[in-house]
Amino acid sequence: MNYRTDRHSNKISILGFGCMRLPASKKEAEKEIMYAYEHGVNYFDTAYIYPGSEATIGEIFSKNNIRDKIYIATKLPHYLIKNKEGLDKLFNEELKRLKTDYIDYYLMHMLTDVDTWERLKSIGIEEWIAEKMKKGQIRQIGFSYHGNSDMYCKLLDCYDWDFSMIQYNYMDENTQAGRKGLHYAASKGLPVFIMEPLRGGKLVDKLPQEAKKIFAGYKTKYTPAQWAFRWLWNQPEVTCVLSGMNSSEMVADNINTASTAEVGELGDDEEKMLRCVVKAINSKMKVGCTGCGYCMPCPKNVDIPGSFGAYNRRFSEGKFWAFVEYTMCTALRKNASAASNCIGCGKCEKHCPQGIEIRKELSNTAKTFEGPLYKLVSKLNKMFKLF
């Protein structure tokens, strides 16, 4: 297993175990987690809202007496918190589930924007974090993020974070926080943990045939999953890549890749080949948005790249996760950035290098996603100030 260091020089396995979708069988979950641990994986990521996950891994680590040999990352669902008392109640519940008295890496789960952080500050989150860190109950503090690179960079500047976690892969190089965000975090000396390295399976079993042919015909014979991981580990700014491993075969394969991947192993030829793969995938998309961000900022706060990313995902990967992505990027924030906010000013189209009819496509996006369920989520967010 290869390792990289965090902000405080701790050695972190470059492959992390994402525990959102553990096997239903606790016996199988223990088998896979312990195999990963025995082969060098030392970073395990969970969250309060992952059904049964915290309790399951807490039981496994306690039973096998390895708590002090691994790092646990879990997350605060700040959208459920209304006051400082709520912070303590929820945090203590997490400690109990995990059978531990401290959390190595604690994240604000899905921190959406600066306004959301300001709301948390108003209920005393900074003082609460300082108290927990002084007591040793939280070792390092960070946040997970879904959204565009500009807001990600602003959030990085809002607080003295120890780390962050973003969605990043060769398809999202210029969307989400993207390479721009990754490099900005690195410039501040912050480690970055990666989620969605395979885009929910899109970069493996949901590849179009043309993309599969490109991989199969390349001189170096890696599987699509291995290419995706190696592309990430080729970059020194990437600290650890999370994988939601749910089979022994997947665990073994990912560990083998993580044990042989090196910074700089991919050269110009490999990058060119992967760009061809991206082009093949994009050819199946509804909107040819590359996520460059030249259309931003929108005077009505529309997240144009985020909206189109979810819209394309709707037709390439299916309804559910596309809806989730769109809702997270547009509705679950203090200032909604929905496609329907568009007033048709056309400012964005003047700057789009792809010549996209942005106003027309935003209208299509709104019609696709902003139905009764979306409106209900938006209404609940406004009523209860979840974000």
Describe the structure.
There is one protein chain. The protein is of the alpha/beta class. It has two domains: 3-275, Alpha-Beta Barrel (TIM Barrel), CATH 3.20.20.100; 304-384, no CATH class. It contains 15 helices and ten strands. Strands 3-4-5-6-7-8-9-10 form an eight-stranded parallel beta barrel, surrounded by five helices. The protein starts with a strand and ends with a helix.
Layout: helices, strands, pairs:
Blueprint: E1 3-5, E2 11-13, E3 15-18, H1 26-38, E4 43-45, H2 53-63, E5 71-76, H3 84-98, E6 103-108, H4 114-122, H5 125-135, E7 138-145, H6 149-156, E8 163-167, H7 178-187, E9 192-195, H8 209-217, H9 224-233, E10 238-243, H10 248-260, H11 268-282, H12 304-317, H13 319-330, H14 358-369, H15 372-384
Parallel strand pairs: 3-4, 3-10, 4-5, 5-6, 6-7, 7-8, 8-9, 9-10
Antiparallel strand pairs: 1-2
In short:
It is built from 15 helices and ten strands. The chain is α/β, with parallel strands linked by helices and 387 residues long.
| Structure summary, number of beta strands | 10
pLDDT averaged residue by residue: 92
Low-confidence stretches: none
Q: What is the overall number of helices? A: 15
H-E string: EEEHEHEHEHHEHEHEHHEHHHHHH
The order of strands across the largest sheet is 3-4-5-6-7-8-9-10
Helix percent band: 40-55%
Q: Output the radius of gyration.
A: 21 Å
| CATH domain fold name of the largest domain | TIM Barrel
Biggest β-sheet, characterized?
Answer: 8 strands, parallel, barrel
Spatial shape: globular
Number of domains: 2
CATH class label of the largest domain: Alpha Beta
How far apart the termini lie comes to 38 Å
CATH architecture of the largest domain, please? Alpha-Beta Barrel
- Name the beta content range: 5-15%
Classification by helices and strands = alpha/beta
In the CATH hierarchy, what is the superfamily of the largest domain?
A: NADP-dependent oxidoreductase domain
